[in-house]
Amino acid sequence: MLYNQRLTTIRAGTDRPFFLVELIFPYISSRAAPYRPVVLQNVVQQVVTGLGYELVEIERSAGGVLRITIDWPWAPGAAEPQFITVEDCERVTRQLQFALEVEGVDYRRLEVSSPGIDRPLRGKGDFERYQGSLVDVVLKAPIGKEAAGVAGLGAGRKKFRGVLERVDGPEAVPDRWRIVWSDEPAVKPGAKVGKRRRPVTLQALEFALDELREARLAPVVDFKGRGSKPAELPPTKNDVLDGRQPLAADDSD
Which of 44, 101, 194, 248 has the most other CB atoms within 10 Å of its CB? Predict the structure, then answer.
């Protein structure tokens, strides 16, 4: 058995280090079993959560590479958890190696890593955790012509980037979210803003989580501090949206 440990560290916008631990071993055809996604999901989920971590993502490539991304759990109102370290990745790697061998899961190389600066957002908990962050979203269906005309966007667009917000208010539909952005160039640091400067025009895309194909933190590199908060945007509270109709995801053509 060949064990090759590779450590890669990347520090960028979220100030979250990225670690990768690999386990490489020869392909053993006598133990090969049909790929069973449910079994793989259950085994990895049990091992990762049993060790006190959160399972972020499972990726399996055609070449037999099995990539597992882990993070520390987060709860509403709690402080941001500590970073995942290389020791955490090694710990999970050792346990997964044993569990996957017992279940007969076929793979050629195992990689366990911490989330990078483009961390995927999988569920409601991730959206609550990263409210106020700059995110990239991809819709399952492109926006229709009517909705695009209201916001001045081209019909058929699926990909958007903006600041993530929850849709609040007495008449708000539960579990609705939006991203807010501006297409105008940001004011350069230290530049003087004249009194006659017109207010920044903001756009908004409102959606439910089941309307998304994919959502991730925007990979914005900021070496001056922590977080991916877009300084070029004004505060994205509900009162900023007054007088501007949010754009809703539309399945029509």
Answer: 44
Write the class of the CATH domain 20-113.
Answer: alpha beta
Going from N- to C-terminal start, the domains of the chain cover: 20-113, 124-248
d(CA 247, CA 239): 16
CA–CA dist 54, 129 (Å, integer): 13
**Cα-based torsion angle of the residue sequence 232, 14, 163, 205 in order, rounded to the nearest 10 degrees:** 130
Distance of alpha carbon 92 from alpha carbon 89, whole angstroms:
5
CB 213 within 8 A of CB 138: yes
Q: List all residues 6 or more positions away from 196 whose beta carbon is below 8 Å from its beta carbon.
A: none
Mutual angle of helices 37-50 and 86-103, in 10-degree steps: 140
Question: What is the C-alpha separation between 163 and 165, in angstroms, rounded?
Answer: 7
Report pLDDT digits (tens) over 82-133: 889 999 999 999 999 999 999 888 889 999 999 988 999 988 999 999 999 9
